[in-house]
Amino acid sequence: MYRTKVGVDLAKEVIQVCIYRNKKVQSNIEMTPNEFLCWLVNAKPVTIIFEACGTSNYWKQKAISAGHDARLISAKLVATVRQNQKTDKNDALAIVQAASLPDVTFIGGKTVEQQQLQTIKRLRELAVKHQGAIKKQLVSLLLELNIRISNRKGGIISAIDGVLEDASNGLSVECRIAIDTAKMNLKVSIEAVHRYDDCLENSVIAHADCKKILKLEGVGTMNAINLYLALGCSDIGVFSKGKDASACIGLTPIQHSSGGFVKLGSIGKHCKNSILRSQLICGAMAAVNQAVIREAKTKKDVWIKGLVERRGKKCAAVALANKTVRTAFAMLTQGTEYKAELLAA
């Protein structure tokens, strides 16, 4: 790190910049985004610490391109260090103070490619939520009118069409129009999810790292992107070990050790990114189900079968997800390929 540290508190319209050098705050001023961009280009190389938040990845990329040492720091750590009331000046100063702590862990930023993949993934998640919400509301509202619909025969769209065409159910013209409008919104959401899926599949093909991760057991398009977003950054602040990445995702037992006694608990129910962990475990469960019903061909199949016999499928799925994260970390950091170890003939 350079001797001069700059703490930057980002906001939508203004940016607070605190310059710290020779154990003193040299300045703590407010800039517009354009003024800050000009400052980045003209200033001598320094260490710039951004609080991890919206637009922080963009500004980190700009700072690095201007020749600075740019890093991201946890907003939770900054809030813990901040003194006095919450203001832009106090936040910028707290960022510098937090970055000066011994053995502080910085956050790895995302590349432009990762940001674009994350955009598609988040839009898909939003479309899936809208799709589920419309389905549940239509089913529950029609049930209030004692109209029961099922998606077993032809899907929920076909079932709603049948309700709209049924003249004996007593629905008014206005109610039929409202239900038809909701049905059209549902169709749009379903089509949006399919289009997002196509975008993700094409993106995976275009990324060599994602294609490598696809070779792992229980990893499909979505999990390949999840692992690439979580582990695929080679910048400062990434995990030093695969087990650290797995612990951050929430796939290792909770540890509560003190006084030389090591106490390991269960896998925590609450984690920072529950969606990522859930999708990894679902993919691992699919791989476990396949490994149980077929003849073992690889050493990992034997390991899965033995684990299922001892602990059950759920524990085996979590253990496989843990192993998947650690293997993907090794592949991305070392540039290796995954090859399953076949059993001797």
UniProtKB/TrEMBL annotation:
InterPro entries in the cross-refs: Transp_IS110-like_N, Transpos_IS110, Transposase_20
PANTHER family with a match to the protein in the record: PUTATIVE TRANSPOSASE FOR IS117-RELATED, TRANSPOSASE FOR INSERTION SEQUENCE ELEMENT IS1111A
Short name of one Pfam family: Transposase_20
Species name: Colwellia marinimaniae
Domain of life: Bacteria
Protein name (database record): Transposase for insertion sequence element IS1111A
Domain Transposase IS116/IS110/IS902 C-terminal: residue ranges: 211-290
Residues covered by the Transposase IS110-like N-terminal domain: 6-145
